[in-house]
From TrEMBL:
Superkingdom: Bacteria
Enzyme Commission number: 2.8.1.7
Cofactors (names): pyridoxal 5'-phosphate
Similarity field: Belongs to the class-V pyridoxal-phosphate-dependent aminotransferase family. NifS/IscS subfamily.
Protein keywords: Iron, Iron-sulfur, Metal-binding, Pyridoxal phosphate, Transferase
Record-level Gene Ontology MF annotations: cysteine desulfurase activity; iron-sulfur cluster binding; metal ion binding
Top-tier EC class: transferase
Residue ranges of every copy of the Aminotransferase class V domain listed in the record: 5-222
UniProt keyword Repeat present: no
This protein's record includes keyword Iron: yes
Record InterPro entries: Aminotrans_V_dom (IPR000192), Aminotrans_V_PyrdxlP_BS (IPR020578), PyrdxlP-dep_Trfase (IPR015424), PyrdxlP-dep_Trfase_major (IPR015421), PyrdxlP-dep_Trfase_small (IPR015422)
Catalytic activity: (sulfur carrier)-H + L-cysteine = (sulfur carrier)-SH + L-alanine
Protein name according to UniProt: cysteine desulfurase
């Protein structure tokens, strides 16, 4: 089995899932991808990509929290999935328990809305994200983390010669940011993603991950650039 993310949640980097699926097939293995971060943000086609299984979550598309879906390729014969919750045999015996109808409907509706606005919203976020990065990279000692092939809404920037914890505390007074994955925003350890990319511990700790969304405006980006610039300069002056 080969497992890979469609897009990294910290840097936004897009991964070559079609090539990964072909690699798995060449070795008689199956390919599973975590597309939670990518669904609703970029075009995805399970048939074209050749994936065997794909996971997605409603909350990343402004749907209800705690609701997810697993795509399994039709006719997929290689393994028998084992239910983690047994009992009544609902959902083809893969997940027993009374169906969460409001959650299921919410996921479907969120998917429909995201797909309808995907092209226009992705372009809007791409432009805002680029403006944000251009502004932040004017700060001395800053660097962008991530390739050119990224999700349109994720910004990851590091700052040299500054302590990460004071930076995060100050910035979080007025902006919701993290130094790595949003789900581990209180961790005192550097991001394993950034250290694997070659960043030293201090620089990885002094990193801000910002994620733009449908409510983000041009004015918000201007404020973020100004506020982060002032905080970084203040902390460097004080050190």
């Amino acid at each position: 089995m080969l497992v890979g993310m469609t897009a990294n949640n910290e840097t936004g980097n897009l991964h070559p899932i079609k090539e990964m699926a072909e690699m798995a097939k060449a070795h008689d293995a199956f390919f599973v991808t975590d597309a939670v971060q990518a669904v609703g943000k970029i075009p995805l086609n399970v048939k074209d990509s050749g994936v065997d299984m794909l996971a997605l979550s409603a909350h990343k598309m402004y749907g209800p929290k705690g609701v997810a879906a697993l795509y399994i390729r039709k006719g997929f014969p290689k393994i028998d999935l084992v239910a983690q919750i047994t009992g009544g045999g609902q959902e083809m015996g893969l997940r027993s328990g009374t169906l969460n109808v409001p959650g299921i409907v919410g996921l479907g509706k969120a998917s429909s809305i995201s797909l309808k606005h995907q092209v226009a919203e992705s372009e809007r976020l791409f432009n805002l994200r680029n403006k944000l990065e251009i502004g932040l990279l004017k700060i001395t000692g800053s660097q962008r983390n991530g390739s050119s092939e990224r999700l349109p809404h994720v910004c990851n920037v590091s700052f040299k010669d500054i302590l990460g914890k004071p930076l995060l505390i100050r910035i979080n007074k007025k902006l919701a940011v993290s130094s790595g994955a949003a789900c581990s925003s209180i961790s005192d350890k550097p991001s394993h993603v950034l250290t694997a990319m070659g960043l030293d511990k201090a620089t990885a700790m002094a990193t801000l991950r910002l994620s733009l969304g449908r409510s983000t405006t041009d004015k918000d980006v201007d404020f973020a650039i100004d506020y982060i610039s002032r905080v970084v300069n203040d902390l460097r002056t004080a050190s």
